[in-house]
Design goal:
This protein is an all-alpha fold. It contains 12 helices and no strands. It has one domain.
């Protein structure tokens, strides 16, 4: 049943013009950044050769591009997820799901994997852009692999956050606003701690801190656990919310 719901969700996404517009806009932004960084890297080659340990093209071009994609996902996730459950709730289709012999877990996971189909395209396009550089230069595959892992985990986490907020309301616009607000909060939560005013919990909650370490090739289990716990926590809360709706019938 999870696969059936996932296929339905993915088909609904790709049949709507919004998904294609969002993908096109995302790719234009990321590609422009990628080409701009590549152009700067080529222009700076004479100066970089004079350095004792110059940054490679992976560090100078690929990693900043992934960082731009990560920031774009903060804007993209609310748009992609706002109709996932709130639209179903508003149209009455969610009642059909909840009255059918299908668990809340299957509904949430099916929706999540359907959304991941589009998120995977965003991730794959980034990976392919980086891979094209291998034709003309040497890439740091260890750093690149860690950065792509971090980007995949971030995509999963942002979509899970959006799915939770979509489960809380029948208004897609409100779900999108809540998703964006929450993602912005955990994106900016340690700005002051980074300046030495606060630390500890705020630093741990910061999404860009964990992503940045992974994107630098530092495979720390704490960073991986952060994204997995965030994803799992959001999905469990969404399941709990749907179970509450079912008990209310």
């Amino acid at each position: 049943m999870i696969g059936t719901i996932a296929r339905r969700e993915a088909q609904a996404l790709f049949r709507a013009p919004l998904a294609w517009v969002v993908l096109a806009a995302t790719q234009i932004i990321v590609s422009w950044q990628f080409l701009a960084l590549l152009d700067i890297f080529m222009e700076e080659q004479p100066r970089l050769r004079a350095l004792a340990n110059p940054p490679g093209i992976t560090q100078a071009v690929c990693l900043p591009t992934f960082g731009v994609t990560a920031m774009v996902m903060v804007l993209l996730a609310p748009v992609l997820t706002m109709h996932a459950l709130s639209g179903e709730r508003r149209s009455g289709a969610l009642k059909l799901y909840l009255s059918a012999p299908v668990s809340a877990t299957e509904i949430v996971l099916g929706k999540f994997f359907g959304l991941l189909a589009l998120g995977a395209i965003v991730w794959l396009l980034n990976a392919l852009m980086a891979a094209t550089l291998a034709w003309g230069t040497a890439l740091d595959y260890g750093t690149l692999g860690a950065a792509l892992l971090g980007l995949a985990l971030l995509v999963m986490a942002t979509l899970a956050v959006g799915l939770l907020f979509s489960s809380l309301t029948s208004q897609p616009a409100l779900a999108a606003t809540g998703t964006f607000g929450f993602l912005l909060l955990i994106w900016m939560v340690d700005w002051q701690s980074g300046q030495g005013k606060t630390a500890g919990l705020l630093a741990w909650l910061s999404m860009p801190d964990h992503f940045q370490r992974l994107s630098q090739g530092l495979l720390d289990t704490a960073d991986i656990e952060y994204f997995l716990l965030l994803t799992l926590g959001m999905l469990l809360l969404a399941i709990w919310r749907l179970d509450g709706d079912r008990r209310a019938f």
